[in-house]
Amino acid sequence: MAWRWRYENANGGEVTEGVPPVEAFTSQADAESWLGENWRELLAAGVERVTLLEDDRVEYAGMSLREE
What is the pLDDT of residue 14? Predict the structure, then answer.
């Protein structure tokens, strides 16, 4: 199974340009660790939210990269 992030703008549309390539991870923990290290770069590139996918199944959606 592959885990990956979908990068989204504030309206939920997918962001594909100007962002790091989407990586596939072997576990949810690896994907979450990667995001913890890279969220600032994604935010600077225009990504406002992310959705975590396991293959095509949504684990959780619309997680904001903005600090509350």
Answer: 93
